[in-house]
Amino acid sequence: MSDPVGQASDPRVQHSSLNQSSTSSEFTDSLRDAFAAWLAELKPALEADQRVTSAKVACDDTPPPGEVRFEGTLRVDCYLVGRLLSLTGTLFISEAGEVESDIVVAAAIIDGVLHGDIQASERVELQEHAKVFGNIESPALTIQPGAVFEGQCHFLPAPFQSDIEEVELPRVPATI
Questions:
Q1: What is the mean pLDDT of each successive set of 10 residues along the chain, which is 176 residues long?
Q2: Which secondary-structure segment (H or E) carries 75?
Q3: Most CB atoms closer than 10 Å: which of 36, 48, 59, 153?
Q4: In degrees, to the nearest 5, what angle opens at C-alpha 114 toward C-alphas 113 and 118?
């Protein structure tokens, strides 16, 4: 039995449901129905999540959108946009990390790229691969060779100062 080019010899292939247009529309309809059923099952769960989310927004501890609050140490190995805030934590931006953010932390150790200002209550360290484009406010700053820093630096008073008050000594007039 010889077959002309382009025709199948197996009768099962010729009568396949994929070759019939009415069957493909039935398949599309069944797929659409299955998706609608799945979506209907999902909808009550989404509505419950929205009620919980709205309750969380009402809390005072919820950070605004685009702000990340953390405690302890946060290591960034990726691209991150948003404000980073931790009054007691340490931020470490690795060599692979790139951050577009203003940062308020206790300590910042930068070895990647940062576009934004840093306010650190303890210290800022710029490692050899660091590229910082922004201003720095900190009581201590370390810049290693190879680091790039474009901005202004304002040194803050040390966080733990002695409670001893300075006593002003009486001035003695100079005699010549």
A1: 51 50 70 77 57 41 75 91 90 94 94 95 95 95 94 82 51 56
A2: strand 73-76
A3: 153
A4: 145
